[in-house]
Specification:
The chain is of the alpha/beta class and 338 residues long. It is built from 16 helices and ten strands. The chain is globular.
């Protein structure tokens, strides 16, 4: 079942008092355990998979208790973090920001903080082979059915940001339908003409191409959604947990970010078997997808500002976020990174 933003908003406002209980529950982690929720099996959380593979957490002397959330379950992951059932959540970005916005608007302080990000440039727009436009403008006004993993999809957020910033239009102007489709089902839905395209990342994109269901029309990795796209996958934690377990979180981030150096120094031939084993994605698919995979976990102040300017501000303009929101007071706290 897809949880809508409206359903989530009700649960957030009803659950503000629950967070205090969750915060107490969330805190005795001091023994060296991080309860991590992460999206799987798409490749957006690959930094965690690499860190796990190289034994970074064991070497650092603490344990990670991991819980998987499938594509489209970012709302559920953020709910678990908000309730105190998780210490850290690693997945799509916009929903943690929406949660904080609702709290700020209701007079509460922002409960969550984004502590890092990954996957700049991982959004792809795949179209059915029956559609072969030479430019984006040819698609404006057509009755297209576009699959997204959920209404809170970070790919949809980036697309809307680009649409507002670069094209000076909205999704209403397009006249398209955006339909919730689980990422793993998108290639089949495209092949069987249930949708006309989708916005998603790897390996969904390459699976669609290899099965001749569609073609890559636009890719953030090529700059099609603007130059130097910001990280779109966020690592978030509760501010309560961060205040009580700062050293543990810094150790966790240091261990996880050790995957960055390992990835950079490893060849494609070395990385593909590792990624395949962790994600279950076949090596031939990864071979096609590899140039569109960037698992580096890091977010600078400039990248956070870029996310706010490109994605956050358009969300404010559409009424999705409170105008009271300040990015470095209510969203980002990047001091826990290496």
């Amino acid at each position: 079942m897809i949880t809508t933003r409206r359903q989530f908003g009700k649960s957030v406002l009803a659950g503000v008092s629950v967070f205090a209980i969750g915060g107490a529950k969330a805190r005795a982690a001091g023994g060296g355990t991080i309860r991590l929720g992460y999206l799987y099996p798409n490749l957006t959380t690959l930094a965690y998979g690499i860190a796990e593979h190289i034994g970074a957490y064991k070497d650092a002397g603490f344990k990670v208790e991991a819980q998987r959330f499938t594509s489209g379950q970012t709302v559920e992951g953020i709910q678990s973090l908000f309730r105190g059932d998780l210490d850290v959540y690693y997945g799509g970005g916009p929903e943690s920001v929406r949660l904080n916005s609702r709290l700020v608007e209701s007079g509460k302080g922002a409960a969550l903080a984004v502590i890092s990000g990954s996957n700049p440039g991982h959004t792809n727009f795949v179209l059915s082979n029956k559609l072969q436009p030479k430019s984006f403008d040819e698609l404006v006004g057509k009755s297209l059915r576009i699959g997204v993993s959920s209404p809170s999809s970070d790919h949809l957020a980036l697309f809307r940001g680009w649409l507002t910033t670069d094209k000076k239009m909205t999704t209403k102007t397009l006249g398209w339908q955006f339909l919730s489709v689980e990422g793993g089902n998108m290639p089949t839905a495209l092949l069987t003409d249930q949708i006309d395209g989708f916005l998603h990342s790897e390996p969904t994109t390459s699976l669609a191409i290899m099965n001749k269901a569609g073609h890559l029309f636009m890719s953030a990795s090529r700059g099609d959604f603007g130059a130097n796209p910001p990280p779109m996958t966020f690592m978030a934690s509760s501010r309560d947990f961060l205040s009580k377990n700062g050293d543990l979180v810094r150790s966790f981030m240091k261990a996880t970010q050790s995957a960055n150096d390992f990835y950079k120094k490893s060849s494609k031939e070395e990385m593909i078997p590792i990624i395949s084993k962790w994600s279950g994605t076949k090596p031939d698919v990864l071979d096609v997808a590899y140039t569109r995979i960037n698992p580096t976990l890091a977010m600078s102040h400039e990248q956070a500002q870029k996310w706010w300017d490109f994605v956050g501000k358009p969300m404010v303009e559409r009424g999705e976020l409170s105008s009271k929101m300040d990015p470095f007071r209510d969203i980002f706290d990047l001091e826990f990174q290496v």
